[in-house]
Amino acid sequence: MPDAAPRAGSGGLDDGGPGPAPAPVPADGLPAAGAPTPDDAGLPLSEHGAPGEDRSGAEEEEHPGGGAVGQVAKIRAVLRVRDFRKLWLSMSLSSFGDWLGLLAITATATTLVDGYMASNLALSGVLLFRLLPAILLGPVAGVFADRFDRRKTMVVTDLFRFGLFASIPLVGDLVWLFIAQFLIEVISLFWTPAKDAAVPNMLRKDQLEPANQLSLVTTYGITPVLAGGVYAVLNTSDGRLSQLLPGLDQIALALYLNALTFLVAAFVIWNLPSISGRRAARPEAPQGSFLGSLKEGFSFASHTPLVRGLVLGITGAFAAAGAIIATGQFYVSGLGGGQAAYGLLFGAVFVGLGLGIALGPSIAHDLARERVFGVAIVGAGIVVLLMAWTATLWMALLLVVLMGFFAGNAYLAGFTLLGTEVEDEIRGRTFALVQSLVRASLILSLATVPIGVGVIGQHQVDVGVLTLAVTGERVMLFVAGLLAVGVGLFAYRQMDDGRPVPLLADVLTALRRDTTARRRLAGGGVFIAFEGGEGAGKSTQVRRLQEWLTGEGLVARTTREPGGTALGGKVRALLLDPASAGLSPRAEALMYAADRAQHVHDVLRPALDAGEVVITDRFVDSSLAYQGAGRTIPMDDVRSISRWATQGLRPDLTLLLDLPPEVGLARARGRAAADRLESESLDFHQRVRRTFLALAEAEPDRYLVLDARRSPEELAAAIRTRVSVLLEGLPLQQLPADVPVPHSRRGGDHVVQTGSTPHLHP
Ligand SMILES: Nc1ncnc2c1ncn2[C@@H]1O[C@H](COP(=O)(O)OP(=O)(O)OP(=O)(O)O)[C@@H](O)[C@H]1O
Ligand SMILES: Cc1cn([C@H]2C[C@H](O)[C@@H](COP(=O)(O)O)O2)c(=O)[nH]c1=O
Fold first, then answer.
1. Of 85, 80, 128, the residue nearest 105 (C-alpha)
2. Do 297-521 and 523-756 agree at the fold level?
3. Which of 531, 539, 662, when mutated, tests ligand 1's pocket best, judged by the most ligand atoms within 8 Å of its CB?
4. Which CATH architecture has domain 523-756?
5. Is-above-0.80 flag for pTM?
6. 70: which residues sit within 8 A by CB, 6+ positions away?
7. Pocket test residue of 590, 623, 626, 657 for ligand 2, highest count of atoms within 8 A of CB
8. Which residue has the CA at smallest separation from atom 12 of ligand 2?
9. For residue 25, how far is its CA from the centre of ligand 2 (angstroms)?
10. Domain residues of the chain, as ranges?
11. Percent residues over pLDDT 90 in the chain
12. Could you give the ipTM of this predicted complex?
C-alpha cells in the first residue's frame, strides 16, 4: 500500500521569518507571512498547546482564524511553513513513486510467469507480501520510531527502499521480486510511524487538520492519478523509449523512477533537522527494554479511553470497508450492473472520501473532533445498513458517496486526534498499532466475507404480498453496517469525555456556526471584551454597558486586565510602573499571561459558569497587539501562552474601539502621567492599532469595530444595539427586582435567579 504522505505536516521556519515589525495588512485582511497574525481564533474552548511545547522549527506563518477565512486559507498557511512544504513535496514524490511502483511491480509479477492461473497467483502473492509484514512487525516498528532519531530512521529506510526498488529490474526474477517486495514493506513499516509521530511536533496543534487534509488528498487523490498517467505514457511510448534507452523497458523505467523518488526523499529529509524534534536535543533512548516499550505501547492503547476508542473505531471501520469491497461485485450484479457499474461504485467511494476530507472540517466547524469521529462512523454504518436494502443502482451509488463522505470525516478526525492527543513519547507505537490493526482487519474481512456470502447463498423470502431477495452479499453488508454502528457508538462513548453539551444540540449549533450558543448550552454566561489602544474610551464604555445591563435586570460583572484580581493588581502595578523600564519583552508577556491565568481562574470562569454577563476591559487581543506586534515577540508564542493561560476561553463578542494612537495618547495623557506602555513610541502604538484591526477583520462575526472618535453617547448606543442582539432570549442570571443598581466596577454578590433575558431596550 502506498504510504500516506505526511498526515500531519512538519513545521519549520517561515520563508519570511519573524520580522522586527509587522508587515502592513494586505487586501485580504491578513498580515503577510512573518508578520503578526490576526489569529487568536479557531480554538474554541480548548487548549491548543502549551508554552515550551517542542515544535522545533515552527515559526511564524499566516494562520487565518475562524470560518470566515476558510479551510483553503488554512491549508495555504500550512504550506507557507517551509519545513512542512519541503516534507510534503518529498512525501508527494515518494507517494507518486510508490503508486508507480505498485503498478510496475504487479505488471512485473504477471510477466515473470506464464499462464492465467500463475499470473493471478503471482499477483495475489505480491499483494499478500505487501500486507503481511505490517501485521507481524508493525508494533515493533512503532517501538523503533519512539526510541530512535526519527530523521535518521526515515533517511536510512528511504535509502534501503531506493536500493531495493532499483534491484527488482536488475535481478529480474519472481522470487527476488517477492523478497524485495517483502523487505520494502518491512522497511516502510519503520518509516511510516517515524514520520507520523514526528510531524505533529513541528506544527501547531490546530494546523494538523489542514496538514492532514492536504496529505490525504495528495496521497489518495493526486499522486495515484499522476502515477497512472505517467505509467500509461511510459507504456504507449515503449518503442521510442527502447530506442532512447536501449535495454530498458517501460516497467524497469517505472521501477527506476520509483527508486529515484526515495533517493530524493532521503536527501530532503536529511536536510530537515526539525524532524528529529526532541531527540535532537535529547538523544538518549528512553529507559527500559525493547520488550518493555512494546508492552507499554499496548497497555497505553488499551487503557487510555480516547486512544482505545480511536484505535477500535478505525479498525472496525476498515473491517467494514473490507466487507464492502469483498461484496462489491456480487452486490452490483444483484442490482443488475456489470463491470462498468462496479467501476462506478468503486469510484463513488473515492469521490465520497475526497468530499469528506475536503469539506468535513468546514462543515463540522468547531464541533469537537472526538465527536465528529464517533458520529461519522455511526453515520457511515447507517448508510451501509441502507445500502443492504437498496433496490436500484443509482440509489446505491448515492449512498456509497455518502458513506465515503462519512468515512473521510472519520479518517481525518481520527488521524488528527492521534497526532494531537497522543504524547510524542508514545506516538510512534500508537500509529504503528493502528497501521497493523487496519491491515489485519482488512485482510480478515477480505478473506472471510466472501465465505460468508457463499455460505448464506441466495434465497427468496415471502413477507406477506412481498417477496424479498435475501442474498449473502446483502446480509454481509448488513452485518458490516451493524459493525460500523457498533464501533462508532463504542468510540463515541470512550472518547466523549463527559461534555456537558447534548450531542444533537452541539451538532446543530456547530452546523449553524454559533459558538456563543455552544458555550451557553454548556451552562455558561456571556463574555464580552473591550479592546483598543490607549485612551480609546474602553473604561468609559465598559461602565456604561454595565449600567445599562443592570438597569435591564441582568447580573453584569465588569473587570479588567491587567489587575482583575487582588494578585493581578500587584502585577499591574509592576507592569505599568515606569520604574520597571528594564523588563524584558518575554518577561512582560509572561507577566500579562500570569495575570490572565489568575483572572480566568478567579473571576471569569466562575462568573460565566454562574450565567453572568462578564465585561472585561482588555483580554488576549491586547497581548497579541502589544506584546506580539508592539514588542515583536513571535505571534505564535504569544498565542500559545495566552491559550495556555486561558485554557482556550474566548470572548463571545469583542468591541474594538479604534482610534489613531496620537488622539488616544493625548486623551490618556490629559488624564494622568504616562505609564510604561503609554510612553512607548508612536510607531509601537501604530503597530498595536493595525494588529487589533487585523484581528477584527479575520473574524467579523465576533467583533464590532467602532470609530472611537464618535461621542461617548453614540458609541454606547451602538454597543447596546449589538449586545442586545447577542443576549436576546438567553438564560442569564437576573437581578431580583428590589436590588439597587450597583456602582461597583466589579459587579456584586447579588441574590440572583436564572431566566430568559427579557426584551432589552437599547
Ligand atoms: N468618545 C470619547 N470622546 C472623547 N473623549 C473620550 C471618549 N471616551 C472617553 N473619553 C475620555 O478619554 C479619556 C480616556 O478614556 P477611558 O479611560 O475610558 O479610555 P481607556 O480606553 O480605558 O484608556 P486606557 O486604556 O488608557 O485606560 C478620558 O478622559 C475620557 O473621559
Ligand atoms: C491586557 C494587556 C494590556 N497591555 C497594556 C495595555 C495598556 O498599556 C496597559 C493596561 O492599562 P489600561 O488601563 O488598560 O490602558 O497594559 C498589554 O501590553 N498586554 C496585555 O495583555
1. 128
2. no
3. 539
4. 3-Layer(aba) Sandwich (3.40)
5. no
6. 64, 362
7. 626
8. 534
9. 23
10. 1-18+31-285, 297-521, 523-756
11. 32
12. 0.99
